[in-house]
From TrEMBL:
A GO MF label: delta(3,5)-delta(2,4)-dienoyl-CoA isomerase activity
Associated pathway: Lipid metabolism; fatty acid beta-oxidation
PANTHER family per record: DELTA(3,5)-DELTA(2,4)-DIENOYL-COA ISOMERASE, MITOCHONDRIAL (PTHR43149:SF1), ENOYL-COA HYDRATASE (PTHR43149)
Descriptive protein name: Uncharacterized protein
UniProt-listed SUPFAM superfamilies: ClpP/crotonase (SSF52096)
Keywords per UniProt: Fatty acid metabolism, Isomerase, Lipid metabolism
Matching InterPro entries: ClpP/crotonase-like_dom_sf, Ech1-like, Enoyl-CoA_hydra/iso, Enoyl-CoA_hydra_C
Coiled-coil residue windows: none
Similarity comment: family membership: Belongs to the enoyl-CoA hydratase/isomerase family.
Protein's GO biological process: fatty acid metabolic process
Amino acid sequence: MKKIFDRLSIDPNTRVVLLTGAGEKAFTTGLDVQAATSSGPLSNMDGKDAMRTATALRRHIQGFQDCISSIERCEKPVIAILHGYSIGLAVDICTAADVRLCTSSTQFAVKEVDIGLAADIGTLSRLPKVVSSFSWVKDVCLSARTFGANEALRVGLVSGVYESKDDAVKEGLKISAVIASKSPVAVQGTKELLNWSLDHTTSDGLRYTSVWNSAALQSKDLSSAILSGLRRRTPTFEKL
């Protein structure tokens, strides 16, 4: 997945990415616990040097985190469409996306405490930043309880709920088409500045914006957009 998103990030033919899960049952049900404990870094830890085991685990976790972070780093907006079971890794993935839609039957859960660990691939860092209540975040993360689409909409985890996966995908495609019609300079700059500002003060965000736009304002996309608005015609923009 990291290779795909790193490629899409710089692909001039790509304006927006729509991320869905295959099939009808689930976006993802998360970690395969049996596989994880029978092979890989979680297996055969008994008797090994603690520091060497910790080093191997840290490298594995950071590598996994980097795969999910590639969604957030992607220069192009990413719209995640969730459906069915959307558990554990599903929350890691969707909180790294820019826009989240789901079906009315979607069942979410931050399930990690039920298997004896703190969620470590991004949920605990990103979820508090994308919803309206820190109390709610602690509720679902500490209890591992399942919550549905309406609750996800109420707290702002998703921005829309649709009857079926097909309906949600159609809406995602509509949103994608609108975004793709805009200046790629403006769209990519907007994503960069919004994401950067989440972890910085307002004054830092304003300064970074001024530096970013000192270059972006020299793009001919600006004059094309303004003139098209004045002349009431649909603008077209070159690939970036």
